[in-house]
UniProtKB/TrEMBL annotation:
Keyword Cell cycle: no
GO molecular function, one term: oxidoreductase activity, acting on paired donors, with incorporation or reduction of molecular oxygen
Protein name stated in the entry: Cytochrome P450
Family of the protein in this entry: Belongs to the cytochrome P450 family.
Keywords (A to Z) from UniProt: Heme, Iron, Metal-binding, Monooxygenase, Oxidoreductase
Domain of life: Bacteria
């Protein structure tokens, strides 16, 4: 518990608590506000926020209940709090670019089925050797006993190398996808997007690229990459150009924003809980359970939003039809009723994959096995090379209520004595 942040959260009248405020997330104090909601108002109504009114669901089992009930809690149209976020408030333009994450059955089912084979364990096995080789090359190129930024030099770089493999994108142009991903989730004034017109120009550029590549792979479907998999799918041939763009941008941003933050979160966790690093070095067989614990503890996606399709009762509270309902995975993963010492990073927890970070039900994260594989490979290659990744300054967090990530993280590598 952060005592100072807990005192701050305790001073705010319960009705005025607004956990959608991105500043609470940037300052990393939001977990104390969520702790108070779990205890005092697990189904909480916020009447006034920058995004309008919304309901928060903060306990583990309630979140599961909502996530698995797509009939009363719909994803149709959007899964973010802010209806005005995209395209300067013209959300109808974004709906035309819909991906399966913002669809309910039956359209969700067929669209997701077209993508799923590309991220199935059998296909991931074909990618593992390439991801491991690029991880080894990157780690061997890093400076030792010198300060550098882990986020840019490792987390982002490694994620871009993975996306280049996944999409069979030109390796030398891998950072192009970083820019595209940042624009997709960006807005004017965020340091990336200059204006809504600028964002629309880049979105057109992204669409033209993926449309050209898709047609090339359809004409010559010989690879094992994700775009070739989609090109072989009959379902994808029925999509409009805007719907195809929606699917590709979801895969690109999903792969970028989540995995890189887990990679950085793993370094922060090891710094704050050095006993767990020693435990891992003594028993590298704990790497898979450590990976699951990182994903629970770091929680790279803080929430998903649903919209009620009818009046729904939850925990004795009636939520009217048409309301925004925000399920806070970040809170559920710190639920004291489910996890012992939930704020602690413990790499040998029982049932380590029992967490909410990938969601539940029909919208469970399709790339969960890929994310776990990347983080596993990273630490399997770190352990024989480095004794410690020392943080030499405070990390800076991004200004986002949805992605729990980092701008910078200054570190210094210490080589393993016998490496």
């Amino acid at each position: 518990m952060n005592a100072q942040a807990a005192a701050e959260a305790a001073r705010v009248p319960l009705a005025d608590i607004d956990v959608s405020d991105p500043e609470l997330h940037r300052r990393d104090v939001v977990t104390e506000y969520l702790r108070r909601l779990r205890k005092e108002a697990p189904v909480h109504y916020c009447a006034n926020s920058a995004f309008g009114s919304y309901w928060s669901v903060t306990r583990f089992h309630d979140i599961m209940q909502v996530d698995m009930n797509h009939r009363q809690f719909s994803s149709d149209g959007t899964v973010v709090i802010d209806d005005q976020f995209f395209s300067g408030g013209h959300i109808e333009n974004e709906k035309k670019r819909s991906s399966f994450i913002v669809l309910d059955p039956p359209h969700h089912t067929s669209r997701r089925s077209a993508v799923a084979p590309g991220l199935a364990p059998a296909n991931l096995l074909k990618l593992e050797a390439g991801i491991r080789q690029r991880t080894q090359e990157l780690l061997d190129s890093l400076p030792v006993e010198e300060t550098f930024d882990w986020v840019d030099n490792v987390a982002i770089e490694l994620t871009m190398r993975m996306l280049a493999i996944l999409f069979d994108h030109p390796f030398e142009k891998r950072r192009e996808m970083l820019h595209w991903s940042n624009v997709v989730i960006g807005f004017p004034g965020d340091g990336v997007v200059e204006s809504w017109e600028h964002r629309n120009r880049v979105m057109t550029e992204i669409h033209e690229y993926f449309d050209r590549v898709f047609k090339e792979r359809r004409a010559n479907p010989v690879g094992h990459d994700l775009i070739t998999m989609l090109a072989k799918s009959e379902v994808m041939s029925d999509l409009s150009p805007a719907e195809f763009l929606g699917t590709m941008t979801l895969l690109m941003t999903g792969g970028n924003e989540t995995t890189r933050n887990s990679m950085s979160g793993s370094v922060l966790a090891m710094e704050q809980f050095p006993g767990e690093l020693e435990k891992l070095k003594a028993n590298p067989a704990l790497v898979p359970s450590m990976v699951s614990e990182v994903i629970r503890w770091q929680n790279p996606v803080s929430y998903m939003r649903r919209t009620t399709t009818e009046d729904v009762e939850l925990q004795g509270t009636t939520i009217p039809k048409g309301e925004r309902v925000v399920i806070w995975y970040l809170s559920g993963n710190r639920d004291e009723e489910v996890f012992e010492r939930p704020d602690d990073f413990i790499i040998d927890r029982p049932n380590p994959r029992q967490h909410l970070s990938f969601g539940f039900g029909i919208h469970r994260c399709l790339g969960n096995r890929l994310a776990e594989m990347q983080l596993r490979i990273l630490w399997e290659e770190i352990l024989p090379r480095f004794d410690r990744i020392e943080m030499v300054g405070e990390p800076t967090r991004i200004h986002s209520n949805m992605f729990r990530g980092f701008h910078t993280m200054p570190v210094r590598l210490h080589r393993k004595t016998n490496a």
